[in-house]
UniProtKB/TrEMBL annotation:
Signal sequence coordinates: none
Designated name of the protein: Cytokine-like nuclear factor N-PAC
GO cellular component entries: chromatin; nucleus
Compositional bias (Basic and acidic residues): 92-145, 162-182
GO MF annotations in UniProt: DNA binding; NAD binding; NADP binding; nucleosome binding
PROSITE patterns per record: PWWP
The keyword Ion transport belongs to this UniProt entry's keyword annotation: no
């Protein structure tokens, strides 16, 4: 990788995990966002997306020097839209520069013109004065009158010169709101050697990054090298497995909720052909604009696609989607594939698998561990079980939507594992809320408690993010409280089915039920805190 020297305002290519090098601009970070420790990095805003990130300098290349190379190896629609956005930005910036240059030239010309007129006026005055002195002197009264006339003439012309000097400056000054729009057309780059596109690789000795999150208020990425690993702060649209070749199979997706929306967005970004359906049709509009196709019913989506994914809220919704009018089952025929990503119980998923397979279809369960943020970031953890061949066929899709996936064997295993994972997460969240309220009522600082926890063995992205939600009173849903309570309920039932005690989950479940009674169902799970303060 060639060494480069960059500055604020430079246009660059930034490498984000599995995604191709993407065009962006070095900008000032938000005031409340700290620069990561370690290697030198810049804060980059990427074109054609809402992504922005701290990117290590070795993962950046100057835009103009590598434009042709990047365009040759990247042909995706979203990539081309991003490049078009850069060119449009440059075109506008160039137009403003030309307008500013024209105004500056015009101002200079006017200044020269006014100065020339001033010189001519002064010369005329001197000539008249010389003629006056060569003539016979007249009466003292006439001499005074002529002197008064010359003085009046001089006084009337010099103010005119000052007005001409000042006027062009006002007309040539750009509006205040345009100042920040002007950027250097090319990077200030000191090249030590010429790099190629192939130079966009992880540095020697650095493995493809493991992931560690740190909560911040907006989708922000931080790539920071520390002891051979990469730390990513809320890495929007960032993954860790290198480039993806999208499958040539037609993909369907049913359900565009908190999780489904992020999944579909990442499938489209990675070049998959996707047909979408949602019970509330308006939610499809954004994805249609991004290149997705619209399916009128679940049956139509399944019949026109090779692999159809679904992600809905609970067991009832999952069954209705498959067995209801114009449902999935009506579109199933031999060879059609159905992947259910909903978090449901093992009995529900087993029943759905049986009816799909009975029609000649192939079935895979693939619930996901994560949140809306992680879904948007393409950083979900996928737990799969069922048809192993279908699992392999979904490889490029799983890479687009998640950082890793596990195949757990026969149908039902993924559902059980997912409920156990969410049981642990839900119980932990309730304990966090309990600790923060206990700190408050005993006169301890909640912020200090968080600082202590973040320095200890419990430190995690989840802990920090949820505590920040509570301290800021921000319960915008990243994982609905009603859904974590549903998962706790199903996990407790799973324990009952094998006569295994789950007293901690049962206690947490009661706290969430109280929070629901306080009208917190549609808030984030961290709103369980309110069950302790009411």
């Amino acid at each position: 990788m060639a060494a480069v020297s960059l500055r604020l305002g430079d246009l660059v290519w930034g490498k984000l995990g599995r995604y191709p090098p993407w065009p962006g601009k070095i900008v000032n970070p938000p005031k409340d966002l700290k620069k990561p420790r370690g290697k030198k990095c810049f804060f980059v805003k990427f074109f054609g997306t809402e992504d922005h990130a701290w990117i290590k300098v070795e993962q950046l290349k100057p835009y103009h020097a590598h434009k042709e190379e990047m365009i040759k190896i990247n042909k995706g629609k979203r990539f081309q839209q991003a490049v078009d956005a850069v060119e449009e930005f440059l075109k506008k910036a160039k137009g403003k520069d030309q307008a500013s240059s024209h105004n500056s030239t015009e101002e200079k010309n006017r200044r020269n013109s006014s100065e020339e007129r001033g010189k001519q006026s002064a010369g005329e005055e001197k000539r008249k004065a010389g003629l006056s002195e060569g003539k016979q002197k007249r009466s003292t009264g006439e001499g005074k009158k002529r002197a008064s006339s010359v003085s009046s003439e001089r006084g009337s012309k010099w103010p005119l010169k000052r007005a001409l000097d000042q006027s062009p400056r006002k007309r040539g000054r750009p509006p205040k709101d345009e100042k920040d729009l002007t950027i250097p057309e090319s990077s200030t780059v000191k090249r030590v050697m010429t790099g190629t596109v192939a130079g966009f690789k992880w540095p020697p000795g650095v493995s493809e990054p493991a992931v560690c999150y740190q909560a911040i208020t907006k989708k922000l990425k931080v790539c920071e090298e520390e002891t051979g690993s990469t730390s990513i702060q809320a890495a929007d649209s960032t993954a860790v497995n290198g480039s993806i070749t999208p499958t040539d199979k037609k993909i369907g997706f049913l359900g565009l909720g908190l999780m489904g929306s992020g999944i579909v967005s990442n499938l489209l970004k990675m070049g998959h052909t996707v047909t979408v359906w949602n019970r509330t049709a308006e939610k499809c509009d954004l994805f249609i604009q991004e290149g997705a196709r619209l399916g009128r019913t679940p049956a139509e989506v399944v019949s026109t696609c090779d692999i159809t994914f679904a992600c809905v809220s609970d067991p009832k919704a999952a069954k209705d989607l498959v067995l209801g009018p114009s449902g999935v089952l009506q579109g199933i025929r031999p060879g059609k594939c159905y992947v259910d990503m909903s978090t449901v119980d093992a009995d529900t998923v087993t029943e759905l698998a049986q009816v799909i397979v009975s029609r000649g279809g192939r079935f895979l369960e693939a619930p996901v561990s994560g949140s809306q943020q992680l879904s948007n970031d393409g950083m979900l953890v996928i737990l799969a079980a069922g048809d192993r061949g279908l699992y392999e066929d979904c490889s490029s899709c799983f890479q687009a939507m998640g950082k890793t996936s596990f195949f757990l064997g026969e149908v039902g295993n993924a559902a059980k594992m997912m409920l156990i994972v969410n049981m642990v997460q839900g119980s932990f969240m309730a304990t966090i809320a309990e600790g923060l309220t206990l700190a408050q009522v005993t006169g301890q600082s909640q912020q200090t408690l968080l600082d202590i926890l973040n320095q200890g063995q419990l430190a995690s992205i989840f802990l920090d993010q949820k505590c920040q939600n509570i301290l800021q009173g921000n319960f915008k849903p990243d994982f609905y409280l009603k859904y974590i309570q549903k998962d706790l309920r199903l996990a407790i039932a799973l324990g009952d089915s094998v006569n295994h005690p789950t007293p901690m989950a049962a206690a947490a479940n009661e706290v969430y039920k109280r929070a629901k009674a306080l009208d917190q169902s549609d808030n984030d799970m961290s709103a369980v805190y309110r069950a302790y303060i009411h």
